[in-house]
Design brief:
Helix content: 40-55%
Strand content: 5-15%
Order of helices and strands: EEEHHEHHHHHEEEHHHHHH
Structural class: alpha/beta
Shape: elongated
Distance between the termini: 36 Å
Radius of gyration: 28 Å
Number of strands: 7
Strand order of the largest sheet: 1-3-2-4
Amino acid sequence: MAVEESSSIIGASNDAEGATPTSAKLEPPKTIYFHPKGDVKLLIGPDDGMEDSGITHIYIVSSAVMSLVCEPWNALMDPDNRFAESRSGEFKLLGDDPVALRILLQIAHLQFEKVPYALITEQLLQLAILTDKYQAIKLLIPFLRRWANRLVHDIDEPLSAGCERWLWIAWAFGFEGVFGRMASMLTFECTTNLRGDTLLYDGKELSEPVPCEILDTILKIREETVEKVMEAVGNVTDEMFTKSLAYSNCKAPSERKQACDTLTVGSLLAGLNRLGLRERLSPLKYTGSIGDMVKNFLKIEFHKLNTSEHPNCGLLPEFKKSINAVIEAMPSAVSEHHKTHIKEQQKILKIPLSYEYRARWKLEGL
């Protein structure tokens, strides 16, 4: 069947089905039939630990179809399994996103004309969560490439709020280039709280879910890189102050080298003072991003006696060289565990390499 090209689903997070469970508490559950002779009821609601939260959606499905999709659903539908609910034909799937689950059930029940042509990023994330939870990723093979290609602009620079969602999406769906790029960008752009133990972006804590250990790794790399950038800048400035009196930083064939050096030292001290870095900070006390730190150091204005005679004087060239060496050596937050998982997902989804390279071209502007 032809897939219906409709944008109606794109705004689904704003309608009744995409509304938060809290806003739907007082409304009767919405019932949707996925099979005219459905023999199982899936009861969808929030998993907030409260008995009176209520069921927001009821999905009528075929147990035979569900059993064929994935092993967790097959076990759920088995009348001889340990689930007492199986005898009543009703199952509570609390905490599952109703829109994402609806899409999975539409595909499973061959209702392809109802499968959305496009998704918003949050819906793709929820699909990634559910297909990982239920081991049902193969259901998405005919649709995933189109959905993802329409959303790669989310990862353009500068990063947008909620961009960390792409860590899980890329990890779950095997988008190797996207995963590596997002990990690098977050390492460079994230800030921390005052304790230095929580990553923030745009002033907000990075939200779950994220692949295991990656936030701790990003936090560690950020701390180490901040320390190395400070050390690199400190070494350049220390060299300026500890050289012998006969040493001059002036690079011009001028008789006014001492005056040039005085301007350089004064500019340096004034610049560091404006940055609050007259004394070296502990990396844990610095809460800004690596990117902002680098930009601020390179913004220090070194005044010159005469720009035509002293075009290369000042410490900016040394700053650039030292800082660039640190940034280029910054390790990746992508571990071997992440790489192995992504490769396994690529095999399952049969993602062609051409897709990955196209995504990189779009994301990196190559």
